[in-house]
Amino acid sequence: MDLDAYLARIGYAGAPRADLETLTAIHRAHLLAIPYENLDVQLQRPGDVSVQHAFDKLVTQRRGGWCYEMNGLLGWALAEIGFKVTRMAGAVGRTERGEISHGNHLVLRVDLDRPYIADVGFGDGVLEPVALAVGPMTVAEYDFRLEKLDADWWRFHNHALGGAPYFDFTEAAASDTTLNTTCQWLRTSPDSIFTQFPIVQRHTPDGLVIILGRTLRRVRPGERTQALIESADAFVDILAREFGLDVPEMAALWPAICAKHEELFGEKAN
């Protein structure tokens, strides 16, 4: 694994230092360059929570990834630069799902003059790192909020047009064994949202572009539009054109993608 290769992948050309300016610039560059995606889960390909796996996939193969890969790679790069980084286990939907949600998200704490949350793995979440402090914040014209639930748990509230509305986390260092156990469940269980339909999300200079199943969604501050993707060829073309992903194998899954869409939404794109 090579730090310069990662910095080239995200288009960061500066001289990195362990300061807030560098953290913010790398966080933004990562999200603008590398999409969130679960296509390997859809294709039933193996994976884990190791940094080597994340580097090979996101840097060498120029793919995107989900939280374990996106934040795993970012956390490694920040540590290489000299930041103090703690990998923390998050829980998306903890109120609804209970203990099974623990470790279904990986989030990073970065300690500078104060602790910051760095998270490039929440899909349509925050574009820049935010201070670990109770209260609202606005980033790129989207409103977020951090809440302290009790002595152990924090809650990060996503913006109003986001997909998952929140995730909870504690500040304890995550166990890689726990993360990998949950990762494998998410990759294989029929009850996992990630096995049911493709999810691809990318930050752009003016908003977000998102695939959910066969729906293409565009999000800008205060505005969300969406339309149906009409064919397997169009799906593969959008992956390449909008997300920089060359995954023609996804065309073979098109009938299943359409069937799941009809099951969930009938004939409606909304």
TrEMBL record:
Pfam families: Acetyltransf_2. It comes from the Bacteria. PANTHER family: ARYLAMINE N-ACETYLTRANSFERASE 4-RELATED, N-HYDROXYARYLAMINE O-ACETYLTRANSFERASE. Belongs to the arylamine N-acetyltransferase family. This is Arylamine N-acetyltransferase.
